[in-house]
Each structure stands twice: as C-alpha cells, then as structure tokens.
C-alpha cells in the first residue's frame, strides 16, 4: 500500500498573505483543523487550530483581532513531506512521535495531497477491547473553568482536546478549534477596552461541544475507529458505569495497527 492510495487529493490550501479570518472560515466550512500554506504556489508551512488558539490567546491583552492577522502570522514552518510512492508502513511507524500531525505529499515540487491521522483510521482492525489501550490518566476541566485556563492546560499537557467533567460525570468536550473560534469572536464583537474582560470571563461551559460522543470500555478498538470516522472526531472518552474511565485518541488507535500485516 502506497501513500497515494490513502492520501487526500482534494487539498484545501491558502496563500501565506491571506487573512487569518479567511483561513478560519475555510476550517469551519470544510471541517478541517490544518491547512497547508503556499507562497507563489510553493509549500512553505501549515496553519493548525492549535497554533491559532495559542496565538490569539497569547495576544489577548493587546486586543489584536484575527482580521489583522495573516496566515503567515500563525504558520508553522516545520513541515513533513512524503512522496506518493512511499510505503504507508513508513508513515505508520512514526505514529505518536513528536512532530507535524499532517504529512504533505509532494511530487515534482507540487503539492499533490495530504495525509492526516484520520486518513489512516481505516487501517485499524483490532478487535481487542478499547479498555486495553485507553489512557487512564485523564486531563480534564470543569464547566466553570475559564477558557484561558483550559487553553493553558492543553499547552502544558500537549493535548488538543479536554473532557469537561462535572461531579464526576462527562458533560462535554473542548478543543483547540473551539477555543480559537471563541477568541476570534470576542475580538470581533467587542471594542479593545472590553476584550480582556470578556476573554478572562469566558467559561468552558460557553464554548464546549455537547452532546459528547463517548463509548463503553468493552467496545472493540475497530469500532472506536469507525466512530471517529463517522463523526469526524479526534478522540473518544471511554466510560464505565456512566463515568469516565479513560480516553483514546487517533494516535492510540493507530498504534494498534500490525505493520507486518499492512506492509
């Protein structure tokens, strides 16, 4: 199996000088969290939801709106490039390693596709219970926590999503993209003098997504992968007796793939 067999060829990309608000519109419209950045049709970086959330959060006291930022303002220059004829097993062997979470497929200096972890989920075929691979150390927030606290928690723990827990019960999820859009909205709606107060008072409850897509701990790993594909989500909280017991991400699922069988 080659990269060209799994890559996404309908590429959503933008020029580095495009306004960040346009990038965010594209993310929302196409339900993506990563967009390649071009300069005179040459790949120069990538904008991610994480980078946007960090940037808008870091400048909250200066009141800079997304409309005054460009793609190049939040672009990550570290990009990972693969060739269409590379074997998929070389990609799978790197799953979970630090680095870019989107692979750019380049042929003859042209960007011809991208590969994300979502593209690799169909390879997940394990019938073992998800309880065997889930992470039981759960980083979470409460609905009454401030969004800026949730953002700092994500940065400190190197995660893109956090379960929202109230009295031991799972009631929502908050992600980088949710935070990015909430920060951008405040910067657009409120004058500079009121923005910091609004940002400081914004609560997780105001931003989190509900209802939560979750699964019981006896579900098969393959079934969790199918849930992620169907609902286009990057992680699934795992429950036992209606209380959260762990969490599993795309990365966790991809680590179950038997490379010898797939190669």
Question: How would you summarize this macromolecular structure in one to three sentences?
Answer:
This protein is α/β, with parallel strands linked by helices and 263 residues long. The chain has helices at 3-6, 20-30, 49-58, 71-74, 88-92, 117-120, 147-157, 176-189, 192-201, 204-207, 221-231, 250-254, 259-262, and strands spanning 14-15, 34-39, 42-48, 80-82, 102-107, 110-116, 161-166, 169-175, 215-216, 235-240, 243-249. The strands form four sheets. A three-stranded mixed β-sheet has the order 1-2-3. It has a three-stranded mixed β-sheet with strand order 4-5-6.
How would you describe this structure in keywords?
263 residues; CBS-domain; 2 domains; 3-stranded mixed beta sheet; 13 helices
Structure, described:
The protein has helices at 3-6, 20-30, 49-58, 71-74, 88-92, 117-120, 147-157, 176-189, 192-201, 204-207, 221-231, 250-254, 259-262; strands spanning 14-15, 34-39, 42-48, 80-82, 102-107, 110-116, 161-166, 169-175, 215-216, 235-240, 243-249. With 263 residues, it is of the alpha/beta class. A hairpin with a 2-residue loop joins strand 10 (235-240) and strand 11 (243-249). A three-stranded mixed β-sheet has the order 1-2-3. Strands 4-5-6 form a three-stranded mixed β-sheet. The chain folds into two domains: 3-116, CBS-domain (Roll), CATH 3.10.580.10; 130-262, CBS-domain (Roll), CATH 3.10.580.10.
